[in-house]
Amino acid sequence: MDWNRIEGNWKQFKGQAKEKWGKLTDDDLQLIQGRREQLEGRLQERYGKAKDQVRQDVDDWLKSLH
Known about the structure:
By secondary structure, the chain is mostly helical. It has 5 helices and no strands. Helix content is 76%, strand content 0%.
């Protein structure tokens, strides 16, 4: 799966993102709008992880999607 598909179908994927990262609020998901940089930034804020770790988490999530 590539990120363009996530971005184009964010309404479908935001539920899965919220399931994976429960600390994301509905407002966060609305603001992200499928943009990877926004997702990574919000995850850093909510979970207090380093940028590299967040990027890896997002990559792993992307690989897990079918």
